[in-house]
From TrEMBL:
<dbReference type="Pfam" id="PF00582">
    <property type="entry name" value="Usp"/>
</dbReference>
<dbReference type="InterPro" id="IPR014729">
    <property type="entry name" value="Rossmann-like_a/b/a_fold"/>
</dbReference>
<dbReference type="InterPro" id="IPR006016">
    <property type="entry name" value="UspA"/>
</dbReference>
<feature type="domain" description="UspA">
    <location>
        <begin position="7"/>
        <end position="138"/>
    </location>
</feature>
<protein>
    <submittedName>
        <fullName>Universal stress protein</fullName>
    </submittedName>
</protein>
Length: 277
């Protein structure tokens, strides 16, 4: 993780959910003085007349977004727009690597169940395959600042998540809450919560609190705890531990990022390929 944010990617498709993703990206831009990239991926690679017209229409819409939102950037950041052609995942992955994106912000639908499920799965896949933090935001999650950041821990020490939480915590003067299930803590030879506390204190002076939660499912207990303290952000790793319980949730791969009204930042464990800045 870098020590500051330089570039934020917002994939757009000109639907309503883009509005809150862009709003959150602009807020982060004004806090960290970083650039916001609005990117549309066109699955077609044809060179027909109709395809050319379609691209012209898309570019015109992107220009309209740039004109509308550029004036809302108060810091040193800039608003960039791009149209990509080809496979969405491949093109976005190339863009993330080429322009060194630090975070992706995506908007989540309010009502469409199938799209919300697809969004959750794509968030997890993007975070893991593209090795980049992905922030899912819905219309109810547009808090102005992240004063309370919840970070569930289980198993190995989540160093990437901790570094990101510390980065946001310094900027927003936040308190970070490490949470784990009591049953996990009792089973572990080394207490990962204590290890997380020691690590964050070694890299930052932000306030930290640790809690052992009751329950059998880390995602469910984390969500209940976050609601209780009125948390502003949950930072998670897209692993099996953070799937919500229940048959329907298992069938639909219902991750915490999909089941929470509180914004969730999904940060995958490193795979050996990371940007250095």
């Amino acid at each position: 993780m870098p020590n500051k944010l330089y570039n934020i990617l917002v994939p757009v498709d000109f639907t309503a959910r883009n509005k809150w993703a862009i709003a959150k990206a602009l807020e982060l831009s004004n806090t960290f003085n970083c650039n916001v990239h609005l990117v549309y991926t066109n699955g077609s690679t044809k060179n027909s007349t109709s395809a050319t017209r379609s691209q012209e229409t898309i570019l015109r819409k992107l220009e309209q977004l740039k004109s509308l939102y550029s004036q809302q950037i108060c810091g040193e950041g800039k608003l960039e727009i791009s149209l990509l052609n080809g496979n969405r995942q491949k093109e976005l992955s190339n863009y993330i690597e080429q322009y060194e994106m630090d975070i992706v912000v995506v908007g989540l639908s309010k009502f469409n169940l199938l799209h919300r499920i697809a969004s959750s799965i794509s968030i997890s896949r993007m975070a893991k395959k593209m090795q980049i933090p992905v922030l899912g935001v819905r219309s109810s999650g547009l808090v102005c600042h992240y004063k309370k950041i919840v970070l569930p821990v289980s198993g190995e020490l989540p160093m990437r998540q901790i570094r990101l939480a510390a980065l946001l915590g310094r900027a927003f003067k936040s308190t970070v809450y490490f949470v784990s299930l009591r049953k996990h803590a009792e089973e572990q030879k080394d207490n990962v919560v204590d290890m997380a506390l020691e690590f964050v204190q070694s890299i930052s002076t932000i306030p930290v609190q640790c809690f052992l939660l009751e329950g059998q499912n880390l995602a469910k207990s984390t969500l209940e705890f976050s609601k209780k303290i009125n948390a502003d952000l949950i930072v998670v790793n897209p692993v099996k531990d953070l799937r919500l319980p229940g048959l329907w949730n298992r069938m639909t791969n219902k991750l915490l990022s999909y089941g929470s009204k509180i914004p969730v930042m999904t940060v995958a464990a490193p795979s050996g390929k990371q940007h250095s800045k």
